[in-house]
Amino acid sequence: MSEIVVTGERFIPESQDDELELEHMERYYTACRFVKGKVVLDAACGEGYGSYLLARTAKSVIGVDIDNRTIINAKEKYSDAENIQYIQGSVEKLDFIESQTVDVVISFETIEHVSEYIQLKFMSEIKRILKRDGLLIMSSPNKKEYTDRYHFHNHFHVHELYVEEFLDLLKTKFRNIRLYRQYLEVVCMIDKDENEETILYHKNKKRYQPEGKYVIAIASNADLPEQSLSMVSLHLREEYMPMLDELNYCRAEAIKCRNMVKQLETRLEDCMCQIDILKNERKLALEESERREKELEHRMDVINQICEEKADKENRLKLAEEELERRAAELVHRMDVINSLNEKVRILENDLKLSNEELDRRAAELEHRMDVINRLRK
């Protein structure tokens, strides 16, 4: 059998939570009175224990839950019940159930786990699958008592309802509605708002009007059945007075604890004030240290920058001196080349002069010979 992790989202009988067990068992044992020989839908069925209880008297039970792992576990755990079907599905779409085929729809602590939109879809599906004289038994946490009173938030709950909102939701599909309140006292009771003839003595005191931690409704478009609801106690062998003594002792201890807590809170406030002062002083010291550290870093940056600039200038000066020496050597070399070229030019000019003189001499000699030739021809 696969193991289900106890998260608080679903009730598991083996979870060792007596209060939760008392509340869930009372709801299902009460519902058993309405399902004898009936076709029943249990949505959402969780790990299947409630469907299993209903199946003892019902003709058949369909247990529906959105979590497939939970459904698999339910099939394995309650396989001995032949009149139960466990089906994985969502309450907003019960298309695997034909219209007007179900006598009783049970839905305990489910409506708050879905959005307002899905709540309306669920109600439409309930109306569709119920027979004309079918019955809905649905419970919902009373937001005023469950959440607001204790400033408690159940992160599994998506949209909780106040009693008036719960009634309005039921009225969208049903004409006849009766509300019962479920709350924990020495025993856990389910009773309706109207007084019954079975109550022999009733004091209507404002200081003691239990709102009910949960609201359980039965609704139908036919006449509502007259069923007296029961109570379940997990402490059958305990007597009232010892329990009351224990409660009084716990109350006294709680008062002592509250007083001690107040004293500790006062001391804590003083300590917190001292801590705040020390934190402030530490903060100022850290800020001063950071300021000086930043100032030192800035000065070091300036020094490093100056050193870098000095090294750069020295390097540039060295390069300039080397360049100057190179250029001076190059200038000397070029002057030597110029002087050498000038000497060559002088020599060439002298050679040219001699060549010109030789050319003039030869030209004069040529003219003389031409004159001689001309005379000889004559």
UniProtKB/TrEMBL annotation:
Signal peptide: none
Domain Methyltransferase type: 41-138
Superkingdom, natural source: Bacteria
GO molecular function, one term: S-adenosylmethionine-dependent methyltransferase activity
Parts forming coiled coils: 261-376
CDD domains in the cross-refs: AdoMet_MTases (cd02440)
Keyword Coiled coil in record: yes
UniProt KW keywords: Coiled coil
Database matches in PANTHER family: TRANS-ACONITATE 2-METHYLTRANSFERASE-RELATED (PTHR43861)
Protein name: Methyltransferase type 11 domain-containing protein
Record organism: Eubacterium plexicaudatum ASF492
